[in-house]
Amino acid sequence: MNQRYDFREIEKKWRAEWEKNPINKEDDVKPKFYCLDMFPYPSGTGLHVGHWRGYVLSDVVSRYKVLQGYQVLHPMGWDAFGLPAENFAIKNNIHPSIATANNIANVKRQLHEISAIYDWDREVDTTDPNYYKWTQWIFVQMFKHGLAYEKEMPLNWCPSCKCVLANEEATNGTCERCGATVTKKNLRQWMLKITAYADRLLEDLKTLDWSEKVKKMQSDWIGKSYGAEVDFKVVGSDEKITVYTTRPDTLHGCTFMVLAPEYKDIPALTTPECKEAVEKYCFEASTKSSVDRMTNKEKTGVFTGSYCVNPVNGKEIPVWVADYVLADYGTGAVMCVPAHDERDFEFAKKFNLPIVQVILPEGEEEKELTEAYTGDGVIINSGDWNGMKAFEAKEKVPHIMEEKGLGKKTVNYKLRDWVFSRQRYWGEPIPIVHCEHCGAVAVPEDQLPVLLPQVESYKPTDTGESPLAHIDEWVNTTCPKCGGPAKRETNTMPQWAG
Ligand SMILES: [Zn+2]
Ligand SMILES: [Zn+2]
Question: CA-to-CA distance for 268 and 349, rounded, in angstroms?
Fold first, then answer.
């Protein structure tokens, strides 16, 4: 017996046999089973063994289900718009539509060779107008419901790819595609309002039968946190200072207030005796960079002469100005809890400000702190909050504050809306027309798809505009609403749209 498995001979024979007699025949009597893979983008290098490592699993499941008597729908297709396909085309100087067609043919040949049981009669291609008609249709629905909107944004810009990048494509300040250093550029963009679904995304994780590890990655990415806006009345004045905090559970430990040197009300809050010192300090701060201020080892600051009232215990606390607080963080005013924040602790030590511990590590006794304690524990020295677990109180306290009229609860997410436009050629045209009178108007559904025009120059431009912006006969159109002259949107959709 031949010890070697001669795959060339054996598989050729069975591939031909299976093509004549598919093992997965359409049969409406059988129960249905749907097995969907992630469609590959047809890059020039073709599939590598890592692709097949993923695809073999779904193929095993599909074959198993066929043997169990199911009619299995196992489609395959091409995620073929977007940067990978376009970059390949530019590098090899072949029009992206031609390069994509060649690459699809090659990858399809490879998939045939590995003999997966795909339903080739249901093959999809995201660059096919019959397909992207529906990609555009979905965009129109989102636009009509306020879920797709325009915004001027400073965005990650790759000067080499000449393209906006999502945060996920620009990790550590370099472009995922080409390795160039990413800069910021202000551009008008289309955004998808995914934050409107933050809570639902989080809630519905509970219904998923996924590993806890993966679910936690997802919930950390959504990053929901509760916080509070708290008003501190200024003693002897009608002024108040509003702070935003994610740690309202530590409010009883707030023993002083620090304002950023740019805080707008500093002149009004400064007493005549302190005026000269405060002005000098603020001027010096204005000459330092944010990075220098954040990384300064030695804390500096100046007292304004004013006091404000901690709303939860009525204690009067001093108001300071210090450059470790930046104007664009929250309101530019920070409630300082030195016992439980490292920077506040250093500042309190340097200027002899009181340190009041309000969270005690479980099972420990209260003793003088030698550094800030930022972990969980039991709440102490906090009136009727005593005994609560700190991390539970973090969520409860904002509600208590709001009920008592001491502040406002706020919800924050790490999740941001999705930048959904690219200044590139090889993507679905965004089905919007800009009219001077009507603003942004959706292309009527019966006029979809908006076809991607054939162009000679598909390379990205230095101005940050899509190459489509230079095709006058395509750009100039009429407004679907008023019939007046209008211009087509020239940005295209990102790779994942299809
Ligand atoms: Zn790049
Ligand atoms: Zn109009």
Answer: 27
Within 10 angstroms of residue 345's Cβ, the number of other Cβ atoms is 23
CB atoms within 10 A of CB 480: 15
Residue 463 scores a pLDDT above 80: no
Q: What is the pLDDT of residues 37-95, one digit of tens each?
A: 888 888 777 888 888 888 999 999 999 999 999 999 999 999 999 887 788 888 888 88
Collect residues with CB below 5 Å from ion ligand 2: 435, 437-438, 479, 481-482, 484
The Cα–Cα gap between 153 and 185 comes to 8
Q: Per-residue confidence at 387, pLDDT binned at 50, 70, 90? A: very high
Task: Tell me the CA–centroid distance for residue 483 and ligand 2, in Å.
Answer: 6
- Cβ(474)–Cβ(468) below 8 Å: yes
Tell me the residue type at 35: C
**Hey, what domains does the chain have and what are their CATH numbers?**
7-127 (3.40.50.620), 133-193+418-497 (no CATH), 225-410 (3.90.740.10)
| Euclidean distance between CA atoms 202 and 195, whole angstroms | 11
CA of 489 relative to ligand 1 center, distance in Å: 24
Q: Is residue 428 a contact partner of residue 498, using CB atoms and an 8 Å limit?
A: yes
**Contact assessment for residue 288 and residue 262, using Cβ atoms and an 8 Å cutoff:** no
Residues 258 and 325: beta-carbon distance below 8 Å:
yes
**Cα 423 to averaged position of ligand 1 atoms, centre (Å):** 13
